[in-house]
Every structure is written in C-alpha cells, then in structure tokens.
C-alpha cells in the first residue's frame, strides 16, 4: 500500500468516521478518490491533514475544505444515484470528484479559471465522465443544468445565495456552511412548495467562497 493510500485510510478512519460519518457510500467514495491528485505537487504531503488546504494559484485564496466537514456535508446531502448535483466553488475539484461517485450527473463551478482548468484535468485523469467543470462566479451557480436535486457549497457563505437557491429543484436541498451569524453552522436548505426552509445541522467553520462574503461596511 502506497504512502498516500495509507494516509487516505487514516483520514477516513481517524477524521471522518470519528465525526459521525457512517454513510457507507460516502466513506467508500472518500477511500476511492485520491485527494493528493487535487493538490499542487509542492503541497501533496499535506493532502490528508485535518485542515482547509490552500490550493490557490492566483490572488484569490481557494481551498479544499477539511475532510471531516466534507464527509459530514456529503452525508447530510443524502445524494441519490439518480441525482443531478451542483458543486459551487469546487476549487481543484476534489468535492466534485467525491460527488461524482454518488450522483448521476455533477456540474461543478469555480470562479478562478486557472483552477477550473486544473479541476477538469484532474477529473478527466480519474475517468469521471459524469462531472462537468465550468469557470463561473460562485454566486451565479449554473442555470444551464438546473434544476438540481442537490447543491453543495465547497465553503461558507455570509449572504443568502439567491441565484443559487433559485436553481434548486422542488424537493431539493442545499448544504453548506452559513457564516451569516456567529457561530457559523453547517446548514441544510430545503425547497418545498415554493418555500425555502433553513435548518442548522452542527457548528462548522470553512473559508468563505469568493463572491459570497458580506459587503464591507463603509467606514468614515
């Protein structure tokens, strides 16, 4: 077993299972997808640590959110094999790759076009044919493949992402971290009878996605 394979097993057993992730499909996906394939070569040694991993190449900071939070959000999303899923702010594509193992079709967006290109290449190298990655602002989602059964934010939002919520199918759900108030919490938003219901799941912190931060207050 390679060093990365051993690290991946330790990540799942030591970080993910111990944080109440029991969904077999989620655990199997996290055991199958090589996280190091989505990390710049000079940072691959950090791929399986319990942290939000900076994979930025440009000025905007972009992250793979920590493994235990990734697993908990995927479990909360309850993705079915026939689902059409949107991953917002996918960075280099790790969360999109995991989601592709669970869903019928995945659309992933990333605001940094250079990272979106890296995500496309990494996903193609793993032969994940059911995921499409596009360069697009996080706040816009991707209306072309909407409506979605599930939408996952690869990070936190400090505002209500209205355009993204508008792409949620009736009966669908969005999961992510809401940092609109303190402490930040993982949330699930459900779309039922034209109404959106918000439910807090657990306390969680994650980097805020570009374009989903609250506007800075004007100071004299």
Q: How do you describe this structure in short?
A:
This protein is of the alpha/beta class and 220 residues long. It has six helices and nine strands.
Q: How would you describe what is shown here?
A:
The chain is an alpha/beta fold and 220 residues long. 26% of the residues lie in helices and 26% in strands. The chain contains six helices and nine strands; from the N terminus they run ααββαβαβαββαβββ. It has helices at residues 3-16, 24-32, 67-77, 94-100, 113-125, 162-165; strands spanning 53-54, 63-64, 84-88, 105-110, 131-135, 148-157, 168-178, 185-192, 195-203. The strands form two sheets. A seven-stranded mixed sheet has the order 5-4-3-6-7-8-9, covered by helices on one side. A hairpin with an 8-residue loop joins strand 1 (53-54) and strand 2 (63-64). It is globular. The N and C termini lie far apart (60 Å). The mean pLDDT is 94.
The structural class is: alpha/beta
What is the rounded distance between the termini?
60 Å
Q: Give the overall pLDDT as a whole number.
A: 94
Radius of gyration: 16 Å
pLDDT < 50 runs, ≥5 residues = none
Find the count of extended strands (DSSP E, 2+ residues).
Answer: 9
What is the N-to-C order of secondary-structure elements (H for helix, E for strand)? HHEEHEHEHEEHEEE
Summarize the main sheet.
7 strands, mixed
Strand order of the largest sheet: 5-4-3-6-7-8-9
Residues in helix, %? 25-40%
Q: Helix segment count?
A: 6
Q: What general form does the structure show? A: globular
Beta-strand percentage? Answer: 25-35%
């Amino acid at each position: 077993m390679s060093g990365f394979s051993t690290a991946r097993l330790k990540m799942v057993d030591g970080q993910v299972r111990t944080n109440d992730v029991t969904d077999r499909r989620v655990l199997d996906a996290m055991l199958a997808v090589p996280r190091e394939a989505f990390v710049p070569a000079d940072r691959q040694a950090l791929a399986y640590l319990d942290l939000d991993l900076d994979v930025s190449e440009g000025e905007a900071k972009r992250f793979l959110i920590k493994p235990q939070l990734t697993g908990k959000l995927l479990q909360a999303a309850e993705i079915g094999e026939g689902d059409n899923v949107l991953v917002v702010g996918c960075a280099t594509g790790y969360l999109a790759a995991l989601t592709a193992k669970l869903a019928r079709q995945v659309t992933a967006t990333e605001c940094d076009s250079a990272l979106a290109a890296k995500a496309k290449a990494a996903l193609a190298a793993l032969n994940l044919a059911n995921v499409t990655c596009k360069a697009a602002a996080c706040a816009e989602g991707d209306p072309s493949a909407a409506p979605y059964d599930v939408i996952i934010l690869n990070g936190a939002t400090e505002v209500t992402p209205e355009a993204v919520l508008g792409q949620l199918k009736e009966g669908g759900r969005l999961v992510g971290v809401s940092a609109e108030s303190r402490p930040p919490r993982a949330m699930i938003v459900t779309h039922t009878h034209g109404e959106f219901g918000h439910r807090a799941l657990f306390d969680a912190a994650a980097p805020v996605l570009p374009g989903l931060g609250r506007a800075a207050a004007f100071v004299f």
